[in-house]
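User: Hi! I'm a student and our assignment asks us to look at how structure tokens line up with a sequence. Could you show me two examples?

Assistant: Happy to help. In each example below, the sequence comes first and the structure tokens follow. Example one:
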Amino acid sequence: MKFIKTSFAHSQLQKRRHIIMKGLLVTFEGQDGSGKSTLLKLVKARLKQENFAVVVVPEFSSRVLGRFLQEILMQNKFLRLNSTGPSALTETMYILSDLYSQDELEIRPALQQGMVVIKERHIDSILACQLPKIVKDYPESDSEQVFQWLCHICGQLTEPDLTVFLRVSDAELKRRIESRGEQATENDFAVFKKRQKIYDRLAAENRHRWLEVMNEGNPQAAVQIIFEEVERRLGAR
């Protein structure tokens, strides 16, 4: 399978985005068990306490496709539809369709109203989570071309103003995953390693919006770091 290498009309996308957006989009990224959901709720509470208008957009929507994805995720934590053959492209398109619906129906309207929008997983998860699956399912594909292709089809999504990446040691990830009654296998960590390589690339290419936070100690310390960065970026507008 061949993927056509494409490039962003980056300046045009950025020009379009700044015209329509007044609020701040904050996305939470990280491996499974890194504490995204927990910290997201704490950050929301802190923002509301400080009288910021804030809304949380979950990983998947409450619409039909979003509910379907949540059901699949409960059965398979890596969101695989087919155990006997390739299905990564179908999975990617389902996830993207749901994400575009969230972007058009929830994220952009809230940003237009000047709200702080907090989103669990966004564009960076599409790249970090789906790229390894596509390359695995279609071995003849070129990983760089797939990366560029994914960037292109994500090109009309709203780019985050701030991406909070939660980093946690493998030992702590294993402890957290097992505390939820789930297994943390060598295969899981092999997948995490592939994802991390992509996250590291995204961090290097998007330093203007990337904030890495260690999330192993007191969560309130992490909340303070994130809150101060949100406040700083809002104040700079």
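Example two works the same way, sequence first and then tokens:
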Amino acid sequence: MNYAKPFILLLTIILLSGCAIEPQKIEYGKDACSFCKMTIVEKKFAAQIVTKKGRASKYDAIECMLNDIKDKKETSLAHILVTDYTRPEKLINATNAVYLISKQIKSPMGAYLSAYASDNEAETNQGDLFNWKAIKKRFN
């Protein structure tokens, strides 16, 4: 019985599944911010980018991510993610998020910046709302 073909097929499936370009789990209290090098601790403010080559960069604050990607082309990124402030366990697409700058919510780097999945969630706090294009402009 020839076992080579099934073995090669199984090996190919395993190798291809290992090459998926996906976000990595953020290890709070262990991972360091790719921009400022501080330990990522606060779950409500974390962010992450993943390049199309699969390299993940993790951030302790959205403002760190925004400062780090200033000179990068968005077309080179497979994922741009921010934490939904109201659901800290959930990373959402940064380009669809609503951003709030509010003195009531202090982010790790002091920009008072948080992200939300919808306008309704962000509007429960006082402050200035931004979409992706506007928040990038604000940090450039």
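Here is something you could point out in your write-up. The chain is about 25% helix and 25% strand.
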